[in-house]
């Protein structure tokens, strides 16, 4: 399968917001399209390559969910387990009835430390603690605390970054291992991902892209995001790894096929996003497409996998807005089956 988009339409989408990043389409073992646009480092003129590591914002929530499901498979925790006994005296405003499953499906109703239902710009300075301190999971506790419950657990869907940070805390406390190590051993190693990792933004290797706030200029997101990503986002990924990831997931090499089926079973319909949600993954509203997506200061990302044809369409952008016209154009070309809601949609 190839996505029916003309070179002219793709060029127009790339130019719309000066896309900078990597676009790939892989079908089975064949790469049918590859575009590397702009710079991983503008000041030094370092161009993107197909192996550039680019931050995915919320795109690693699926990895967080997989860490949790590995612990579920091991019998360490259960989907119906209450979170309160694991949190102890921490985060006292989290409702006593919140379960692991509520957090995975964004139905917990807990107050979110990064509330995407509120007003504000993507590049606002929103963190209440110094960003350089946010390198390990427990360090996020002061930032997560103090947000009242929004609604009773299970009442409805409300996308919750804080919920996925709580999941990272849960994973560490029940396993005795750090969240970052769990992602490495339980997801990346099992899937054969060689370039993906949680990197510090103040200590990036030469093959990792800086995240830019605007179409032009050299201002980066280093003062806007935690110095190291965690359960709710911030991992650096490569296009090659994403195709490997989807194939490994559906081949049962990360968690069992039964667990995969449970994770990608539609739990909630989200009309405002033109999608459904499972556990850690967005799902096509009228198709079997599986979606990881992220949007943050200096990051715009979507990777969509079509299981029937083993097709992966990945757009990794290292600016806040650059990837969205490209993602939007590809979604239209695919008859809207992977379309999401972007700022310019009605």
UniProtKB/TrEMBL annotation:
What protein am I looking at?
Serine hydrolase
Record-annotated Beta-lactamase-related domain positions: 15-324
Coiled coil residues, start to end: none
Question: Is this entry keyworded Hydrolase?
Answer: yes
Instruction: Report the SUPFAM superfamilies cross-referenced here.
Output: beta-lactamase/transpeptidase-like
Predominant place of localization:
membrane
Q: Where in the cell is it found?
A: Membrane
- InterPro entries reported in the protein's UniProt record: AmpC-like (IPR050491), Beta-lactam-related (IPR001466), Beta-lactam/transpept-like (IPR012338)
The species is: Cellulomonas xylanilytica
Record keyword Secreted present: no
Identify the GO cellular component terms for this protein: membrane
State a single Gene Ontology molecular function. Answer: hydrolase activity
Q: Which UniProt keywords apply?
A: Hydrolase, Membrane
